[in-house]
Design brief:
Two copies of one chain form a homodimer. The first copy, chain A, has 227 residues and is an alpha+beta fold. Chain A folds into two domains: 135 residues, Nucleoside Triphosphate Pyrophosphohydrolase (Alpha-Beta Complex); 62 residues, Arc Repressor Mutant, subunit A (Orthogonal Bundle). Chain A contains four helices and eleven strands; from the N terminus they run ββββββαβββαααββ. In chain A, a hairpin with a 2-residue loop joins β3 and β4. The radius of gyration of chain A is 21 Å and the shape is elongated. At the A-B interface, β1, β7 and β8 of A face β1, β7 and β8 of B.
């Protein structure tokens, strides 16, 4: 692109190109999964990758992330958050490119991902069983998982995965899927109450084998951090 | 830059250029300050800005941030953290540019900032009394301050601003400078102990008017988050 410069009249900048990549996480059958597409040609043929692409000169990064996710995964209207900008020198064999990663945690039952002709497939894949990935997408996913695990400790980011009213056991299952391990019930409850994100309702979940369990709801069903 | 494409032989990408900007925060006379340079020419002449510049094709973002801070502010070897990537369409009147902001909290007594000929001045300026700023640097600083305020709640990021051993009163003064307001002493102590970042030494600060105060140190003098 051309940049006016105070010393020369104009100057052509030869720097990195800018891409975005989107990490869409969901919990499926108790496992943390990420949405991947399989590349149809070029140097990364048959490898799997996050939905991503080049940022156009007339788009902000947020817009580019939304547009690319919509075009390549058929997903609209998702609120994503900027995660980190990756810039290893050889992260793309086709040329120098920095990539701004975006992420969201979603209820996969509400999405119907479909991709474009260039990709061979689009699938949810478990974090612990990832196929061979193109670019630095393994590194991005690791970073995203780490951020997600940190975020459940001080936000209500899981609200999208739970019904309006839920038991602490249901909530714990979501936390365990994200953490990737079992959590001690007493510690979990102590931790969750200390976050002050929940409101106790006067209702109970009945009709199950166990004794009725209290129902809770989030103070807000939009992203909220602990005090 | 040229990008090989699977369909055409090659393709010229006309996207945003990539810059980095560095937010260097310090506490001076009890006030949170940021390091600014005054621009010497061009459309932003006389405005103040964060030290920043274009990312070269052979630099990672981390390297670019270090190189630019060194070149434009004479500061070497600082550990900075990536903050956020800003991409408003018209953030730079000279052309489309995204900028990756980096930040650090430093002991300003240990730095001797000096700038290059193109800039008229380099100065620490109080967050609450910023001059007119170029680009979207006001927005970047606001975001950086917000992140810094959040971070003191769950990390030991202030370690660089305190001596090896310090009293809780000294620590509270640092927190108050960053928060921009007074903090209740009892709440502060309760909060700090809950973070489990400190170790109590067996020593006391003597020789002052008040009764001797216990000395504490950080478990680690490198960035550490709460459990």
């Amino acid at each position: 692109m051309k940049i006016q410069n105070t010393k020369s009249k104009s100057k052509l900048i030869i720097g990195p190109a800018v891409a975005v990549d989107t990490l869409i996480f969901a919990i499926r059958e108790g496992k943390l999964c990420v949405l991947l597409i399989q590349i149809g040609g070029g140097p990364y043929e048959n490898k799997w990758a996050l939905p991503g692409g080049i940022v156009q000169v007339d788009e902000t990064l947020d817009q580019a992330a939304k547009n690319i996710l919509n075009k390549k995964a058929g997903i609209e209207g998702l609120h994503m958050e900027q995660l980190y900008t990756f810039s290893d020198l050889n992260r793309d064999v086709r040329g120098r490119m920095v990539s701004v990663a975006y992420f969201a945690l979603v209820d996969s039952d509400k999405l119907k991902p479909k991709t474009i002709d260039y990709y061979k497939a689009i699938e949810w894949r478990e974090i612990d069983q990832l196929p061979a990935l193109a670019f630095d997408h393994k590194k991005m996913i690791n970073y995203g998982v780490e951020r997600l695990r940190a975020k459940i400790e001080y936000s209500n980011i899981v609200y999208a995965l739970l019904p309006k009213e839920f038991t602490l056991t249901e909530m714990q299952m979501v936390y365990e899927a994200i953490a990737g391990n079992k959590i001690d019930k007493r510690n979990f409850r102590k931790k969750i109450f200390s976050l002050e994100l929940l409101i106790e309702t006067n209702k109970e979940r009945k009709g199950q084998k166990n004794r009725p369990a209290k129902l809770y709801r989030f103070k807000k069903r939009e992203l909220m951090f602990t005090a």
